[in-house]
Amino acid sequence: MNQMTSAMAVIGLCGFALAGQPAALSSGLDLPDPLVTASGEPVDSPEVWREVRRPELLELFRTHIYGRAPIGRPADESFAVQEVDAQAMGGAATRKDVRIRYSGRGGEGGLRLTLFVPNERPAPAPGFVLICNRDPENIDPARQTKSPFWPAEQIVDRGYFAAAFHYADIDHDDGDDRFDNGVHALFDPPRAEGPSARKEQPRPGDAWGAIAAWAWGASRALDYLETDPDIDATRVAVVGHSRGGKAALWAGARDKRFAMTVSNNSGCTGAALARREQGERVADILRFKNWFCTNYRDYAGREQALPVDQHQLLALVAPRLLYVASASDDDWADPEGEYLAAVHASPVWGLHGQPGLVSDAFPAPGESRHEGRIGYHLREGGHNLTEEDWSHYMDFADRWMQPVE
Q1: First CA to last CA distance, the chain
Q2: At 377, which helix (H) or strand (E)?
Q3: Euclidean distance between CA atoms 264 and 259, whole angstroms
Q4: What pLDDT digit, counting tens, does each position of 52-76 carry?
Q5: What is the pTM of this model?
Q6: Following DSSP, what letter does each residue of 145-183 receive, concatenated?
Q7: Cys bridge to 375: 170, 174, 278, 396, which one at CB 3.0-4.6 A?
Q8: Cα 348 to the center of its chain, rounded Å
Q9: Catalytic: 383?
Q10: How far apart are CA 400 and CA 323, in angstroms?
């Protein structure tokens, strides 16, 4: 069963048209099918997806792109709410300054989670966790600096909690990283010391990079949120922009506790299809040597040889909520490639009896697609995370992220 057959079968089964389907399927892309197993068998039920195909795809992404985390939830993970301000934001919210701690063979580590919970709410609050990959002042807990990158006041005003952590708490974003700091120093197997010894004893080709580490940190934030009685942990969205968007996608793909995954301008090795070979390509992004596992280097200039493509990463979120956002002037992130990845992921939502991306065509700048469980919008402008983007995410959550009955 090829991609055309899978998509057409889903349309017939579920009675809705996939977004941009004719254009996407005539684009000439030879994409690996998310609904065909490694042995060539069709994935014809949610059970086969859950038990066979989903684990296969996760393993491929671990082996070839993001790397393999050596640990899940640390056994000694602990939480401490160090400060509470019940009258934050002029009384609209309660701010909690949370420390999440854990340890490994390399010592102790942790992250700081800033959390604002709306005071006016009828029940535990749903909300958004941002993986912040910009200067920490963008998530200023004192709110002396208010950035459109994380408009916490507007999020709270809409009835959602606003949570954020800085990615450097998990792993430094250093292109020359030797993986001897952050969570890599804590949890990676020991290696010989010294430059010559390191050269002779490289990390395994599938050892986790920074993207996987930041995604792991998002799951640790969710660990805490599950313990907070003010939070509805069944309605938590993970959000990231650019490299943070890549991490958010890997977090949502791996951790099924996230009800919604948001990719903002994530581009190459995020939401954009690699096989389009448009915008930033694999050879370009590998200048960030610390982001991915070293096996990924085998595909520089060889996108067609990849055993997976990014529509399959998006499909790993199914049938939960997914949002992909692009910007009209962000050619480096390949907006059309991000959109087409959502199109080609949609048959997996159809397999579960759910609409994926429902649309007639690639949207014009300023337009959105919220009709299915995959949302999309094309914002006018460049590579950024803005209040306009956040407004779309909350509109989509209002429509789809309903309480569990």
Answers
A1: 36
A2: strand 374-379
A3: 17
A4: 999 999 999 999 999 999 999 999 9
A5: 0.93
A6: S--TTS-HHHHHHTT-EEEEEEGGGTS---TT--S-SHH
A7: 396
A8: 17
A9: yes
A10: 11
Tokens of 177: 């990283």
Of 229, 92, 243, which is closest to residue 174 (Cα–Cα)? 243
Angstrom CA distances, 170 to 39, 136, 173, 210, 398, stand at: 37, 13, 10, 9, 31
State how far the Cα of 1 lies from the Cα of 10, in Å rounded to an integer: 12
**Which segments of the chain have a pLDDT < 70?**
1-27, 175-177, 192-200, 405
What is the DSSP code (8-state) at residue 380? S
DSSP state, residue 203 = P
Q: Indicate the pairing of strand 260-264 with strand 78-87.
A: unpaired
242 is catalytic: yes
Catalytic residue among 27, 147, 172, 383: 383
- Helix (DSSP H) and strand (DSSP E) numbers for the chain: 14, 10
The pLDDT value recorded for residue 202 is: 82
**Active-site position among 64, 166, 184, 242:** 242
